[in-house]
Amino acid sequence: MRPAARDELWSRAVAAGAGISLGCAALTVWNRKTLPRLSGPGAPVTEAVTVCVPARDEAERLPALIADLRAQTGIPRLRILVLDDASTDDTAERARRAIDGDPRCTLLRGTAQPPRGWTGKAAACRVLADTAADPARRTGSADEILIFLDADIRLAPGALAAAAAELRDRDVALLSPWPEQQARTVAERLIQPLLCWSWASTLPVRSADRGTLTSTVVACGQFLVFDAAAYRAIGGHTAVAGSATEDLDIARALRRAGYRTALVAAHRFARTRMYGDGSELAAGYRRWLWSAYGGSVSGGLAVGVVAGWAYWLPPLAAVLGRGRVRRWGLLGYGAAVAGRLTARGLETGRAPGPGDLAAAVSHPAGVAGYFLLWARSHRDRRRNALTWKGRPLGA
To answer: What's the rounded Cα separation, in Å, for the pair 207 and 199?
Structure first.
């Protein structure tokens, strides 16, 4: 190939990558402007609301969540179920002390391993949902709203009332309030904000939530709010017994059954630090990343090619290119940084700080780290080496 033709091809490739980056940044801006936000306080919720908290080895984090739940306002018919899922630490004792005799709270003890074909979390959620539905365990009428929370989430007073009201106002079967994902270490800042950015930059969420396409669903398993009747109509967590991403798959099951689901920003009311350091983050992501893109290696590679085109090629051109190529590279790289900062602002509800800016500037490295974790997740799955909290996850 002649040098002139090669230069033209290089220029067009960089321009196309920059165009992808610009388009994704524009969509992120649109989502930040249009995504509904959890608001309140409103009128008290008159329906019966049951909160279900599966907890395994959560002695350090669970007491703070229980304190948050006991401090909730606006839900006079609130019931709280906490399951100690065969923990190997003192989760149960710490939970009992945090409950401190509150009659709204019930501590359940699980000692068995998950049934064959079930993940630990799905099995724990089924136990909680079955307990919530058991007439012998109720003190009043049947629950009408079911809320599943992870032990690492923190809630402001009024969070549950706001979420329950939003579920009814939106007339959906599942509301997924997206909490602020806190990140403190370098690895967390680099990788964790990619969760929000991944959907904010690729999916017009408000429009997608008007329909029931399973391919456009977004959900966060840390905070799920269900219409109890719809949840039970699809079989609850039995429908996603072996899923590595039960939050997304239960939302898809609802949509397949004709129900609508919706996402809402919840940064005013909910925050979480999912992982405590880089090693926890790597283990957590490797546990489920193999299931991304339908579990397909070829699908993941295709996404990787597009991501490299949009987020690696422009910064490379900005450094190594000249003239028009460099200008396209700078434009594409700038769009990537702006898009990531916009997504972070959508998630936190505030202007990005210095750590967020540093992570956004390092966005190409974050994307590379994500795909490295994806590859390792597939490797561990092939070796049947996937585990979580001391339990094998199977092939």
So the answer is: 13
SS3 67: helix
- Do 227 and 339 fall into the same domain? no
What is the domain-level CATH number for residue 139? 3.90.550.10
Identify the pLDDT of residue 46: 94
Provide the domain limits for residue 248: 49-276
Q: How many CB atoms lie within 10 A of CB 195?
A: 18
Nearest to 225 by CA among 262, 271, 270: 262
Residue 154 has pLDDT above 60, yes or no: yes
Compute the distance between CA of residue 229 and CA of residue 352 in angstroms, rounded to an integer. Answer: 40
pLDDT digits (tens, 9 = 90+) for 32-53: 999 999 998 788 999 999 999 9
Report the distance separating Cα 342 and Cα 360, nearest Å.
10
- Domain annotation covers residue 44: no
Report the number of distinct structural domains present in the chain. 2
Give dist(CA 303, CA 289) in Å, integer: 13
352 in a structural domain: yes
Q: Which long-range contacts (CB under 8 A, 24 or more apart) does 182-186 make?
A: 182/271, 182/272, 182/273, 183/273, 183/355, 183/359, 184/273, 185/277, 185/278, 186/278
Packing angle, helices 3-34 and 297-311, rounded to 10:
100
Regarding whether 106 and 7 lie in a shared domain, the answer is no
